Amino acid sequence: MMWHDDRGTLTHIQDLEIVLPCDDNTPLWQAVFAFLEEHPDIFQVDGAQWIQEPEATQCQHVTESIKTFNTSRAELGDWAVFRDALNVRLYRNDQNEVVMRSMGGTYLPAMPQAIYEEIESCLANGPAPEVLEDKARAESYPYISYLGANQICMPAFMGDYAPDPADVLEFTGDGQVDWYEAGDGTVVVTIDQRVELIVDEANVTEALAASNAACPDEMQPGIIVGFWAYLDLVDGTVANKGAGLGCIVC
After folding, report:
1. Is 53 a residue whose pLDDT tops 80?
2. Residue 176 is assigned to a structural domain of this protein
3. Strand, coil or helix: 216
4. Contact 32, 20 (CB under 8 A)
5. CA dist list (Å): 132 to 77, 169, 192, 193
């Protein structure tokens, strides 16, 4: 077994040979998490926080060949999270039983109540929405333009876009959890808010229209040029930013 001391969860455990109660037409992840939750000191998971997709993956999808099944976490505390993932390797033995051979993942344990309350207190005293908007508009947003490129998807040059007052800035969804290992034996948890900047048509240059910031408009013919950013809801810093809303160009 491999244990990650900083995260407080295992990274990988193998040679399990655990028979799972897993009848056909039973949600596979329901059976897996039922076992994992019986051993909280080892696996540190709460199945209610993870995506189980009962319609997509059933016990009958496990065959004699060992196969890896993957899932991801939906929430940590009361916030959405997209970083955590785990996998199990399963097969069906000669007695037609579903057997878990190994389990692994990259995830945090359930959030302690004290940490949850501390985050709630920080958020209550965090920057107001108008402050966050000012910070997002004060950023410059990098993009890659393919204007005049000799080959398809060959970058011609890189640029930076400075928001204009006519551009629309939108807060999309609720705050979500992100985390990273600080390198000193601790894990830093942040609550980030996604914002999207839609460039006004009058500000769309040829370079922008031929860049990775330009995506097809789903509502009508044409393109939408835009950028996104994640702002820390505690101190207002920009945690991440990029070009393109809803598509990947090249």
Report:
1. no
2. yes
3. strand
4. yes
5. 23, 11, 11, 9
- The number of beta carbons lying within 10 Å of the beta carbon of residue 232 is 21
Write out the two tokens for 86. Answer: 């785990």
Among 63, 70, 67, 50, CA closest to 101 = 67
How does pLDDT run across 1-33, given as a tens digit for each residue? 999 999 999 999 999 999 999 999 889 999 999
Verify that 169 and 62 share a domain, yes or no. Answer: no
pLDDT per position as a tens digit, 81-117: 999 999 999 999 999 999 999 999 999 999 999 999 9
Domain total of the chain: 2
Among 180, 186, 182, 142, CA closest to 160: 142
Q: Which of 77-91, 129-143, 212-226 has the lowest mean pLDDT?
A: 212-226
Q: Residue 236 and residue 131: Cα distance in Å, rounded?
A: 8
Are residues 61 and 139 located together in one domain of the fold?
Answer: no
Same domain, 68 and 126: no
Domain boundary, last residue among 72, 106, 140: 106
At residue 166, what is the residue type? A
pTM of the model: 0.81
